[in-house]
Each structure stands twice: as C-alpha cells, then as structure tokens.
Design a protein that fits this description.
Elements (H helix, E strand, L loop, with lengths): L1 H24 L8 H13 L5 E4 L3 E7 L7 E7 L26 H17 L7 E7 L8 H7 L10 E12 L3 E3 L2 E4 L1 E10 L3 E2 L9 H19 L6 E9 L6 E2 L2 E10 L2 H21 L3 E10 L2 E3 L1 H15 L4 E3 L9 H5 L4 E9 L21 H15 L3
Parallel strand pairs: 3-4, 3-5, 5-16, 6-15
Antiparallel strand pairs: 1-2, 2-4, 6-16, 7-14, 8-12, 8-13, 9-11, 10-12
Helix pairs in contact: 1-3, 1-9, 3-9, 5-6, 7-9
Amino acid sequence: MLDKIKALSRSFTEEVVGLRRHLHANPELSYQEFNTVKFVEQTLRSFGIDSIQPMATTGLVAEIKGKNPGKKTIALRADMDALPIQESNDVPYKSKNPGVMHACGHDVHTSSLLGTAKILHELRDQFEGTVRFLFQPGEEKNPGGASYMIRDGALKNPEPESIIGQHVFPLLPAGKIGFREGMYMASSDELYLTVIGKGGHGAAPELTVDPIVIASHIVIALQQIISRNASPKQPTVLTIGKIAGGTTTNIIPDEVKIVGTFRAMNETWRAEGLKKIKKMAEGIAESMGGRCEVEISHGYPYLENNPELTQRLRQAAADYVGKDNVVDIDITLGSEDFAFYSQVIPASFYRLGTRNDAKGIKSYVHTSTFDIDEDALAISTGLMAWMAIRELGG
C-alpha cells in the first residue's frame, strides 16, 4: 500500500501544485471563503467524490468510504482562510486580491488535502473504514472556524476515532516532518482595554484625570501577572501590541485604548490569568481617579497532541520519508484553532517542512514574503493518505 500511495502522490503532484497556485492567487479572508469553498467542492466532485456536506457557512465536510465503512472513521482537516496582508512576492501566482494573502500556508493545507482525497478515492476498494475530510473556514479569526465546525456536527455521526492536521513550517527544510507529543501550542485570548479619564489642557493636569498616565501604569503592572502569579514552570505570555490615545502635544485626551494578547498552556491558569488582568486593570484605573473597561475576546484553547496517536503518526512518517527526515519540534506560544478538535477527540497536529535556503524560500508565516518550496507538495498529499490508511488499520 505504501508504494501505491507514493506512486499516486507523485502522479498527482503537478495537479496539486496547480491547485495550490490557484488558491494562492485567489485568497479570501476568514469567514468570507465563498469562492474558495466552491472551488474545493468542484474539485472534489471532479475526482468523483460526491459525499459532501456544506458546514459552518463557508466550510464543508466530505467522506470517502472504503470497504466496511462503519468499522472506523478517521478525520483529516485543512483550513482555507487567508490573512489581511499585501503580498510582496513577485511570482506568477501572486495574490490577485489587494491586501489579502495566503501568508500562513492555508493554500498548501487545502490543496494537499484535496490531493489526499484524490489518492484515497482511488484506493477506496483497498482499505476498510471511512475517511472524513474537514475543510474549515476562519482559522485566523476568533472564535475560530473549528468551533463552528464542531458546533455543526463535523465530529458526529459517527464521532471519528481521531483527527489529524498538517501545517506548513518554514523553520524546517522541505522534506522534513516535525512532531511533538502532548502539549504543543498555547491558548490565545485577545484583550481590549479602554482607559477613561478626563481630558483637558496639558498645562493644567490638575484639572484632568490623565488616561495616558493611567494606561502606562496598567501596561507595566500587567507584566507582574506573568512574573509574580504564573508558575515559572508554566509557559505563558502577555503582550501589549497597541496603545492609542491623544492627538497632539498639549492636550490630555479623555481615553486611551490598549490592545493585547494573553497566551497560556493550561486552561485553569488561563482562566485565572484573565480574571487577574481584568481586576488589576480596573483597580489601577479606579485608584488613579479613572476607570477601565475590559473586554476579552476568548480565542482558542491550548493544543494537546495525543501521545499515542502522535507516536503512531511519527512512525508512519518515518516509513514514508525515512527516519532521518522525522524530527522533534519544540512547544510554541503560537495558537491554532485545531486545538478545539484536540479538546474533543484524540488529535495530532504535525509540521510540514517548506523551507529552501538555496531557493531563497525562508520567510516566516504571516509575512508579505512568505512562500513555500513546492517540492513539499510531493510529500504532503501522500503522507497524510498513508497516515489515514495506517490509522484505519491498513
């Protein structure tokens, strides 16, 4: 079976590259993937796959049933949304949509999973069980398209035994695959603070309640939540990414906006930390004569890679690309809405190397120069197909 999958993957690589380039050139933002999901559905139907169900408005679920389809179900996931970034790459498949770019590799994830679906459809008479394909919207924006997919039943009727996700990784050369068992990625919550004071003339501060001074105290004090409340053994971060207030040199404004992110790798500490942020910000503002309105946009939970599943996938990857091309990766305080799936069923999220220094392909994700070595697409489709077959017992 391994040789068959490798042969099919090689034969489909040129087509998958074309799919990726089409998606890259036509990106759509989170929850606006209307043309993308139509393209995905049309492509699946062109392969002969017709078990397709729309889901989460701009997502869909497809299934390929092998022999004895009720024996076991495995889910595979790809995300489809792009980022609000103006692409600066000079390539034939450069984004045609101003200010929108596939700068996080979701075009790779989607095209790869389409290729995987084509392989497994070709082999449907040679494995037992069912493979469910989740093409989801909105990974880049709260509350996360995965939460909508779960809400709408993507993991029901029947519940899959496990779910597998693949993500590009520009820190790894193309040809390498990265794994980590257990806790891997952080939760992420967005913080929106409005510090309200009383504006006035900069030369008469005694007649005002200066929200800029209050905001400054809040920003510095919030870091003590990390340094003096979080365990040093517990990875966590609080970053303030934006402060906005005032118009000129001699006017004290009425309010200041503070925007940031809070990340943790423990759900209990996550909840406690958010409470402390709110209490501290409100308390400091009140003690200085103002007030602070705190809005928290709850994002994704932390991502847990099921150890047993990840060990099996690691071995499958070693079989596919060779043991020397399978590497360990470190935890990251980045976040991924695949984490929602990991809170429901056994899940594993692994990394696909896409870097090639010789070709100048080394930019990180979420940058205007991000791109991939498309040689990685010769691996990505077949590897996931092989993992699915192995998990089904084939």
